[in-house]
Amino acid sequence: MAGFFRLVQSPEDRLERLSGARAVGELVGSLPFVTERGEMVGKVLDVVSSACERVPVFRLRFTKSRNFWNTLSNAGLDASVDDFSLIRGIKA
Question: Cα–Cα distance between 79 and 81 in angstroms, integer?
Answer without folding.
Answer: 5
